[in-house]
Amino acid sequence: MILQNDNDFMADPGRCGICPHISVSYRNNRFNHRMVVLLVLGFLLLVPFASAADYILTATSSDQFRSGIHYTGKDDLTLEIWENVTIDSTSGTGIDSIVPVIIRSPQGKTLTVRVRNDTGVLFGITAPSVSVESGNLDITVTGNIDGEKGLACGIYSSAGNVTVSGGSVSTTVETTGHKNKGIYASRYIIISGGRVNATQQGGANTFGLDGGNADIKKTDTGVQVTGGYIQVHSAGGRARNIGIDSKFGTVDISGNTVLVIRTDGSGSQQNYAFNPVITTIHGGGT
Fold first, then answer.
1. DSSP state for residue 66 in the 8-state scheme
2. How many distinct structural domains can be found in the chain?
3. 199: closest CA among 270, 144, 141?
4. In this structure, are residues 113 and 89 in contact, taking their beta carbons and an 8 Å threshold?
């Protein structure tokens, strides 16, 4: 709405019939009708878009999201954790989105995601990309799944990056599947701050942080760590137990990073904290 000058208003205020809490002034009924139409359009166009892309997680809203979040909107999905909330899913995923997901909690609250199922593929969170800015994310994935094809991941990025710049992320993945992964990104896992704890146990193969889509064979993928405190524990895999890896990309660790990696010797083929052939470490502590 554009007003040309102060004379467009009368001295006596009126109130919008649709939104009586909003005071408006008008010169005649024709102007008032225009005002109402603009307000109606504003609510129809703005409010649904904002509410569809931003989910506020509180104790009150937890019932709505208790069994999981499945988002199919066009705008990026932002989850704001205002109070401690738990998602307890018996389906294959806890949070499933077709667009990038951003997670934050300026209040420092915790979102707990638990997934328990015996299907072939299990994800705590799956989206094209996932970014954690603040707050605490605690993910547990368990199930009896196919030992030759089953896949379980705490966080799974299908097309982009998993980024952690603050807060804390904890993943526990324990299934009978072919691959148990704490955090997987089809491009890069990027950690610049916060705390990351990835524990994966059992099945055929365990991977803590795995960056890059092995099927596409791109070299501009991998794991980039420039800060934060990271703890990885991969154990119990019959064939492989690997801490940090990228099949065709690179692993770069720098800055004031504190990195603790533990693997056991249960794998019949490979057991290593990281692959020295593709890993560069400059600065930090490992």
1. T
2. 2
3. 141
4. yes
CA distance 160 to 185: 6
- DSSP for 115-133 reads EE--SSEEEEEEES-EEE-
Q: Which domain holds residue 107?
A: 58-285
CA distance 113 to 109: 13
Domain identity same for 32 and 63: no
* Residue 31 pLDDT: 35
Domain check: are 29 and 94 in the same one?
Answer: no
Measured distance between the N- and C-terminal CA atoms of the chain, rounded to whole angstroms: 59
Q: Is 286 exposed, middle or buried (0-12, 13-18, 19+ CB in 10 A)?
A: middle
Angle at 158 between CA 127 and CA 143, to 5 degrees: 75
pLDDT-based confidence at 143, cuts 50/70/90?
very high
- Asked if residue 139 and residue 25 are part of one domain, the reply reads no
Do residue 133 and residue 20 come from a single domain?
A: no
Q: Residue 103 falls within a domain, yes or no?
A: yes
Task: Dump pLDDT digits (tens) for 194-234.
Answer: 999 999 999 999 999 999 988 888 889 999 999 999 999 99
Say how far apart CA 237 and CA 148 lie, in whole Å.
12
**Residue 1 located in a structural domain:** no
Pair 95, 127: CB distance under 8 Å: yes
Residue 101, token pair as written in the block: 């997901």
Q: What is the pTM of this model?
A: 0.81
Residue 197 in tokens = 């704890």
144 and 207 fall within a common domain: yes
Give the burial class of 272: count Cβ atoms within 10 A of its Cβ; 0-12 exposed, 13-18 middle, 19 or more buried.
middle
Q: b/e string for 67-82 if b means 16 or more Cβ within 10 A?
A: ebbebeeeebbbbbbb
Contacts of residue 232, defined as CB under 8 A and 6 or more positions apart, other chains included, come to 182, 197, 198, 199, 208, 209, 243, 244, 259, 260, 261, 262, 273
